[in-house]
Amino acid sequence: MITNIHQYNVYIVTNKAHTVFYVGVTSDLFTRILQHKNKAYPGFTAKYECHKLVYFEDFQWIDQAIAREKQLKGGSRQNKIDLIVNSNPDWKDLSKDWFD
């Protein structure tokens, strides 16, 4: 039996000072974070230097991931901070060793 495996991620990146957050969804977290770090696309994350991955969640289905992204984007700044602190209290860049 062949099983299709899907993986989607909802993630939060921030800048060095943790003053700006960007919430996104992707099917390839590694590549997407690399794009943020390299400022591959002009826009919000490039302008505000948001390339530090501080939070992510995995989903099997894109509709679940999109619903969660919308929930996080619609939530308060404090809700995002609480979410990050609960899973990553030191605000480490979770992608730090991915690109060595």
Annotate the secondary structure layout.
Layout: E1 8-14, E2 21-26, H1 29-37, H2 44-47, E3 52-59, H3 62-74, H4 77-87
Antiparallel strand pairs: 1-2, 1-3
Provide an overview of this structure.
The chain is an alpha+beta fold and 100 residues long. It has a single domain (8-87), classed as GIY-YIG endonuclease (3-Layer(aba) Sandwich), CATH 3.40.1440. Helix content is 37%, strand content 21%. The chain is built from 4 helices and 3 strands. A 3-stranded antiparallel β-sheet has the order 2-1-3, sandwiched between helices. Strand 1 (8-14) and strand 2 (21-26) form a beta hairpin. The protein is globular. The termini are far apart. The mean pLDDT is 94.
Please, how many domains?
1
Q: Into which percent range does the helicity of residues fall?
A: 25-40%
Low-pLDDT ranges: none
Radius of gyration over all CA atoms, rounded: 14 Å
* Averaged pLDDT: 94
Shape from CA axes? globular
Order of strands across the biggest sheet? 2-1-3
Question: Helix count, per DSSP?
Answer: 4
β-strand amount = 15-25%
